[in-house]
Amino acid sequence: MRRQFGAKMTIRAYVSLRQKAIAEVLDLEGICIDHDSLRGSVFLDSSLNINQQIKSFFLLYKNGKLISMLSMFIPTKNEAEITAYTLPKFRGKGYFKSLLGKAVEELRAFDIPELLFVCESPSISGKRVIDALNADYDHTEYFMRFDRASYTRLNRYRLILLKAVQEDLEKAIAANMKVFDDSREESKSLIENCFLSDTREQYLAVLDDEIIGIASVNLEEEDVTIFGFGIVPEYRSKGYGKELLHLIVDDLLQRGRSDITIDVNNENANAIELYQKTGFHIEATYEYYRKKSG
Question: Is the pTM of this model over 0.85?
Fold first, then answer.
């Protein structure tokens, strides 16, 4: 899908990106990160979007060169997390507004009601865009990175770490619903998309033949990302979260993967303390701002 700006400006919309487009986006991102002294990175995996038909990447080209991009992460039917970059010398010219307009049209077509803009805290230009949008502050998340030198393996474990397969689908769905209070539809979409991915793995935490926890990892890039991590409510505050995180880290280290990251809400003091004691430190801070798509 393309929208023409005269003869030299084009917007291209994609459900997923091929390698050439990914390379272009990463080049653009690198320039913006260096210019704005940022630390984060754009999320380019659409495999966890609740509907695999939604176009979630919008790229704007001038004379064949990528100058602005917008991506959407849509894990539930309630909201789309939006990240965008524009080359510094092309800012303030309405390019992001054009991309956002196309993205909102797509979201309305699929009845996604809200936008959640992601802005790294030090981004001055990002904050200006948020102010212009009149979006409301929602929450802040920390992006945390593992430091192997700060990690100490546990001496014993009560839990067994199970790598889930397709036959475990219903068990994984039930666990996800208990841990995150998600609907069955949302949980089923999340777990099924994980099973379909070549780079994602689904873990279950088992205690005496009962599943009491869940977590996933994404091994697509050099960094391994832990997400969807949690313990069912009745087993919390008993040290099982600590065991589950250590089991996952142990497994990744044994496979030679030590570049491990995890996200956490800044108000979740217990999780932050757990991650820090396991060897994670805060690398970047993201602020989220909410606005209706209609």
Answer: yes
- Closest CA relative to residue 199, chosen from 224, 176, 175, 170: 224
Same domain, 102 and 159: no
Q: Identify the domain containing residue 160 by its residue range.
A: 148-278
The stretch 259-287 carries a mean pLDDT of: 96
pLDDT value for 2: 52
Is pLDDT above 90 for 221?
no
Residues 22 and 98 in one domain: yes
Band the pLDDT of 41: cuts 50, 70, 90: confident
Full 3-state SS string of 82-144: EEEEECHHHCCCCHHHHHHHHHHHHHHHCCCCEEEEEEECCCHHHHHHHHHHCCEEEEEEEEE
Whether 133 and 184 share a structural domain: no
